[in-house]
Amino acid sequence: MANSKKSAEVHSPELTGMLGEGFHLNAGPDPERMLSIHRRIHEKMDDYKDYSFSATEKRALMIFFDLAQEFDTLEEFFAVCTAIPKFLFDLDCRLYLAIGPDNFVPVGKTEDNGPICSSVPLEKTYRGKHLFIPIRGNIELVDQLPFKPAGDVIGCFELYMIEKLSSHQSLFFEKFINRVGFQLHNKLLRRKGQEHLDFVRNLVKDVGHNVIVPNMYFKLFYNRLRDRIENIRKLESSLNGKDKTVIKEELEELYKGLVSQFNEIHSHYEQTSLFLETLLRRQHFEEGRYIVEKRPCNLLKQIIEPQLERYRSRFEERGIRLDISMGGVPDREVRIVADVGLISQVYANFFSNAVKYTREAAMQDGHNDKFTAYGWDMVPDHFQNGWDGLKLNVFTTGPHLSENDRDKLFQAGFRSENVGNEYGSGHGLFFVRQVVELHGGEVGYEPQDGGNNFYFILPFKRK
After folding, report:
1. pLDDT at 26
2. What proportion of the chain, given as a percentage, has pLDDT over 70?
3. Contact partners, residue 455, CB within 8 Å, separation at least 6
4. Which domains are assigned to the chain?
5. What are phi and psi for residue 104, nearest 5 degrees?
6. Straight-line distance from the first to the last Cα atom of the chain, in angstroms, rounded to the nearest whole number
7. Residue 160 and residue 189 in contact, taking contact as beta carbons nearer than 8 Å
8. What is the pLDDT averaged over residues 299-307?
9. Residue closest to 193 by CA, chosen among 154, 141, 139
10. Distance, CA of 294 to CA of 384 (rounded, Å)
11. pLDDT in tens, 79-125
């Protein structure tokens, strides 16, 4: 039997995956560690005897422990934290959470009219009839925050409209709030882990949609290159009897074709590399979210034109004309502050959709046309901070989207009713929305004469 147990321990990939390589089934902690655990149990027994908590106070701790496990969302947990002092001790209270190094916001409360503290203390403090007890974060949680909280304080509990507590009451509420802090740590870490996992899942979709799928065109590029190389071989075998002028013209034509093909492959390689470097930045994985690296750039030269070149041949293959009439001056230099790699992928998604969904449409003057247009417009004082908006448009001819589709366009996994047999995952416009919102902007859609305009607006500060 002993050998059987040992074998089960060694060959248990499920347990190894759950508990790690260092866990040994049935081994238990070493004797010294067991003595330490036993000692702490006895110390806690003595502590709780000295606390002499009343039946109501003990009940409060037990109720909190049970409900902290039962209610799963942070919003519900915050409500539990403040409801227990109110229900069992008739004390109004408020819970604050740190959102910056010295910036706290109320996240739970028992009544609506109490004054909100503008400066949360970092030590246990009385202010009039208000008692503030800080919640300090453990090192594991603090290290994962996007900021360094002052004094490692991640929150604060405020009890108000009370006379000065006795030492016993003060001790009870410190112990109660210690338990609030412990549960808060666990819930924040769990949410952080879930957000990290969700980000990785989305990142896999982003890489698939923006890199792997477009990379299939490399096969097409190389097939075309192979054909041109084969034409050189055919030309070599047919040199006899040809006029030198004809041979020169044919070589010139082959040379231009090879150069064009090389440029197309090189451009695709550069953009694929840019996208991979942008999506797979180390910071994204460390933070569990996209980290935007903004820098000044030329909108047309560094972002729009490289993406147009990637898709130009596909527009031509589908008979889609490119138009530059949608606002702005095509050769005017517009400099923005943005993450070049991410905003380039926004345009790549818009142009990819334009290739797939542009259709011929009747225009206002009565003629039919099939084109994609791009451009930009200034929207003065568009943002609350007084900044203007730079509205960036990509228009495609075709039937308008249905009212039902318009509200869902930028949601994850949504595909419009008009997709037909076109390949797609429903992820592209959701990615667009994420990136634009990370830049402080907004996305949108509007039907226009003869087609559909997809746009995003970025904050733009005039000089």
Report:
1. 60
2. 86
3. 391, 392, 393, 394, 443, 444, 445, 446
4. 32-195 (3.30.450.40), 200-460 (3.30.565.10)
5. -120, 140
6. 80
7. no
8. 91
9. 141
10. 21
11. 999 999 999 998 899 999 988 887 888 998 887 766 677 788 889 88
The H or E element spanning position 330 is: none
Cα angle for residues 350, 356, 358 (degrees, 5° grid): 85
Q: CA nearest 50: which of 163, 175, 165, 164? A: 175
CA gap 447, 54 in Å, rounded: 68
Which of 390 and 43 is assigned the larger pLDDT? Answer: 390
- Please report the pLDDT score of residue 176 as a whole number: 93
Calpha distance 139→144 (Å, rounded): 9
CA 34 to chain centroid, in Å, comes to 44
Pairing of strands 371-379, 388-397: antiparallel
Amino acid of residue 406: R
pLDDT tens digits, one per residue of 329-348: 555 678 899 999 999 999 99
Mean pLDDT score, 303-315: 89
Structural contact between residues 424 and 415, judged by C-beta atoms closer than 8 angstroms: yes
Q: Are strands 371-379 and 321-323 parallel, antiparallel or unpaired?
A: parallel
CB of 106 closer than 8 Å to CB of 116: yes
Q: How far apart are CA 461 and CA 135, in angstroms?
A: 40
